[in-house]
User: Fold Ferrochelatase from Lupinus albus.
Amino acid sequence: MLRLIEFFKPFNILYFHRLLPHAICSSQKMYRSSGGHVEAPSNTNPLKIYMAGRCSLGWSEAQPLVSKQSLNRHLLSVEALVTPTAQDVSDTPFIGDDKIGVLLLNLGGPETLEDVQPFLFNLFADPDIIRLPRLFSFLQKPLAQFVSVARAPKSKEGYASIGGGSPLRRMTDAQAEELKKSLWTKNVPANVYVGMRYWHPFTEEAIEQIKRDGITKLVVLPLYPQFSISTSGSSLRLLESIFREDEYLVNMQHTVIPSWYQREGYITAMANLIEKELKDFDSHKEVMIFFSAHGVPLAYVEKAGDPYKAEMEECVDLVMGELEKRNITNAYTLAYQSRVGPVEWLRPYTDETIVELGKRGVRSLLAVPISFVSEHIETLEEIDVEYKELALKSGIQKWGRVPALGCEPTFISDLADAVIESLPYVGAMAVSNLEARQSLVPLGSVEELLAAYDSQRKELPPPVLVWEWGWTKSAETWNGRAAMLAVLLLLFLEVTTGQGFLHQWGILPLFR
Assistant:
């Protein structure tokens, strides 16, 4: 799944904490100590320090992250980007005359019902969604066309139920505007761009605008609090391919903030929303706080080392720790939603957990969409409609839901701080090694992050092994062996005979 360049193995950021305390900064574990922050010497180039350290220190191969404990041992490497700093940005030498840009990455979604079918085509054309054997990879787009056309009518019903389209772009644009205002308020005149994976504005469109604006320093910020190779990783793989093919981007300085779930501002903002919603319950101390996160296939975690589960569990612990400081000690649980197909996904499942809580006598439930920072179909339809209905049928009498963060001021201000704190670690691509495109960025280049989270270059199993007959409203992915066989047979006849509706539509012009 992650096909990274093999000229030489990029440095693994998960072990960079062995160098950081001695070479660049002194950092302490956030929430575990008082006042730890990162400071880069004002008269020193961190890139030179990094290169000097690289020549003198040994490097270790990372093992897949499969547990919360293993993640905690390695998080110090990224804490330079997520721990609050007391450094005044206006005094830092890392801005200068550079034109700074921030690229927000997100999934994207159809804005109108007419957008649904082309959006689904882009989704299914991604090999990370439906993966064909390499021998049949040329069928990826024809298959995506077939599936998206068949899937569109039912999918339109789901989007119609939430207003005729996804609000994701509108909300992400608003977040980008507020982030830009916050950065300028903090004396960082940066432009903020939005790049979506499967719909407008596409990542490619954002990159073209970045080039037109002459950006010289770019901070890439996925709008996923917790890192997963299926979300942030997918967007970073796309960026990697774009960067390799463009000489302007090769020379542009960049860094990536891989995840930011443990930032103080984010945790505070989540706790504020939960505390506010709890007040709507008559007996707020009896309310079960129900964290629902988007799921990923279990194999991603166990076989590929995806840190998502470990980061999610720590995130929930941090939020509850903040609530405990406010004397809020409600019972809580974490479950995973949006599973698709018969493969094993992260457990416990949200729907099964809701039923179980009802059987155990829980009568008040507050749902917290912990992995989502914007409202979209999985919050507005899956949680607000499907799970609420299931909860009421299961004996839950009072239901509440914490809204997504959106443009919550504390959250936006903290994102701005995260961007500012990453600026000292923005570095240039290696101009002398254009073939390998080897990045020199100490903390968080695209290639280094991909290598760090998939150190063994393992190909992920497909998230969907068979097509589900019917409709899964939330996940937008379904599959079925019978349908697959029928489609492959149809395509085989098209290829061998040179006739059929796919040729008439111009989908298979290569075989005319």
In short: Confidence is low (pLDDT under 50) at residues 1-93, 428-443, 455-479. Strands lie at 100-106, 190-196, 217-222, 253-256, 288-294, 332-337, 364-369, 398-401. The first strand starts at residue 100 and ends at 106. Residues 113-165+480-511 form one domain.
